[in-house]
Amino acid sequence: MTTIDDERSGGDPLPFEEWDHPREAWLLSGECRGDRQRTLLLEMTTRALFPTVLVFSVYLLLVGHYGPGGGFAAGLVAGLAFVLRYIAGGSDDLGATVRLRPPVLIGSGLGVALLSALAPVAFGAPVLATAKVAVDVPLLGHLETQTSVVLDVGVYLLIIGVVLDLLRSLGAGIERDMRDAGESR
């Protein structure tokens, strides 16, 4: 077996197959974060920014349908708000924020997008055709929008559901591994 001298460990020979393996856990600390180890500044900043970022994502959703990708960009911004909330407070904080299960959001988003894509066929128009709609709302006045905003809402719900599902599945595994490492001590 060929060996390589490892300069970091004082020259101990290592098997050639293991010379590039990490020597220590550099990505995860291996310890579950307790209540006393939480960062108050991050949590308070997140709680202040979270609603603002969600309102900005709704703005992108409503204004972005005049250009390509309004629902997708808005969904990513909202997903990043949930990622920040997860980083600050863990899965318990995220569960308190979102009452719907991610598969429900994914299914709802797909259903809304599919129905909005196929609805023009019922009126003799091609699939994904869009029309301009003008409505007089008592308090807001005259509003104009396009029917493509409904497709954007479906994509928005779909992207948020996918991000929440990723946080739920990947985050639960990381938290479980950290909890198991803490119990084995």
TrEMBL record:
<feature type="transmembrane region" description="Helical">
    <location>
        <begin position="109"/>
        <end position="129"/>
    </location>
</feature>
<feature type="domain" description="Na+/H+ antiporter MnhB subunit-related protein">
    <location>
        <begin position="42"/>
        <end position="164"/>
    </location>
</feature>
<dbReference type="Pfam" id="PF04039">
    <property type="entry name" value="MnhB"/>
</dbReference>
<keyword id="KW-1003">Cell membrane</keyword>
<feature type="transmembrane region" description="Helical">
    <location>
        <begin position="72"/>
        <end position="88"/>
    </location>
</feature>
<keyword id="KW-0812">Transmembrane</keyword>
<keyword id="KW-0472">Membrane</keyword>
<feature type="transmembrane region" description="Helical">
    <location>
        <begin position="48"/>
        <end position="66"/>
    </location>
</feature>
<keyword id="KW-1133">Transmembrane helix</keyword>
<protein>
    <submittedName>
        <fullName>Multisubunit sodium/proton antiporter MrpB subunit</fullName>
    </submittedName>
</protein>
<feature type="transmembrane region" description="Helical">
    <location>
        <begin position="149"/>
        <end position="167"/>
    </location>
</feature>
<dbReference type="GO" id="GO:0005886">
    <property type="term" value="C:plasma membrane"/>
</dbReference>
<comment type="similarity">
    <text>Belongs to the CPA3 antiporters (TC 2.A.63) subunit B family.</text>
</comment>
<dbReference type="InterPro" id="IPR050622">
    <property type="entry name" value="CPA3_antiporter_subunitB"/>
</dbReference>
<dbReference type="InterPro" id="IPR007182">
    <property type="entry name" value="MnhB"/>
</dbReference>
